[in-house]
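Much of what follows relies on a compact textual record of a protein's fold. A complete example follows; check for yourself that the lines match position by position.
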Amino acid sequence: MTLVAGVDSSTQSCKVVVRDAETGRLVREGRASHPEGTEVDPAAWEAALRTAIDEAGGLADVAAVAVGGQQHGMVCLDSDGEVVRPALLWNDTRSAQAATDLTAELGGGQAWADAVGLVPVASFTVTKLRWLAEHEPENAARTAAVCLPHDWLTWRLAGSSGLDALVTDRGDASGTGYWSPFTGEYRTDLLERAFGGRTPVLPRVLGPADRAGVVAAGALAADGGAVLGPGTGDNAAAALGINAEPGDVVLSIGTSGVVSTVSTTPSADPSGTVAGFADATGNFLPLVVTLNAARVLDATARLLGVDHDELSRLALTAPAGSGGLVLVPFLEGERTPDKPHATGALHGLTLSTADPAHLARAAVEGLLCGLADGLEAIAAQGNPVRRVLLVGGGARSEAVRRLAPAVLGVPVLVPPPGEYVADGAARQAAWVLAGGDAPPTWPATSTQTYQADPVPFVRERYAEVREMTADRG
């Protein structure tokens, strides 16, 4: 039996899965936590990956490995390959003004959408580089190369020190704001615009099944010799892991809320609502991201002093629309809509709605309304919706699963809980090992279908309150 490994280096943790390259059967796995915060020393990711590899039984018998990682994070390296400063993560909003400035400088959203398929927001790497140039000029001057979290971990697994050994893939490169999914090339003019006229070394963009090298003996406590795949961003890896095909919409409720679909054509939305990313197979991945997702449920459960099972039970005892109580869950600012300095809002509180059940229902519906807006935006870009797949930690909530079809207005398929980002990375590793024009066919996971009559008044009421939510910036 030939084994492959996939890594998911996410915002909150690192997961490693080891699978049979031919059948996809899970053989073993490991995980480790990441520190909290919106800026993190990459050494913490390295330590977590080492721990997760050990817990997964090492890589001695693994023939290939690939890394899926959180998108957009800015990792700056000096000329010696040393990290210049802690990485700014996708959910760090300090570059919000930089995003506004860059959009205006190029002539607005249409110009950016035409150039790179997206419009700058605080999440994207290009805005973080502008922030660095303006606020930390000494660190900017020391920066000889810029890469993404998955690029850096792949580089470390290879035991590399030279900046010219940095590699990435089109899926992750498409989220930087300076790589074009239309041409498959970097837009160094946009990078220079953001970074004070400088052009640091950028990772070489590999094809979907290209080899990135081999794991170096002793690198991250790993056994050497395994083939390295190019890796990809977490959203592209999840789509590969769940075997999403054109027409499939994947709704992922994790730290962020993600609505994405596999498409055979690139997208260019001048409003910036839909980011026109590439995927990990050669297709495209139009995508909408909300900054607030599963942690909305965490925060509400903490506020009510209950666990997630009880939060779900409470939500299902309240009526649809929660009696007029609406939670707009912009608890960390928001990315879609672009309100990086906004705060959450609770509206419609009355004597009859001032109880745990109504608040629990409002939290679940508020979360789902943000995803429903994303689904609508994806469809408006001309992407047919064949089926909707609900994944991520938030999908474990019975209330989320049962209320989703009513709020979204379509039936929802829920695969069993799984590490789909790590699984996608493992599937890519198997593809790199086998070669060919397509990833290996692994048996599809079973799904449970949830259906409910649509409740459009919930979204209508949510939209009214959302528009009253001010951005403090």
Remarks:
- The chain has a mean pLDDT of 95.
- The CA atoms of residues 127 and 232 lie 21 Å apart.
- The two ends are 56 Å apart (CA to CA).
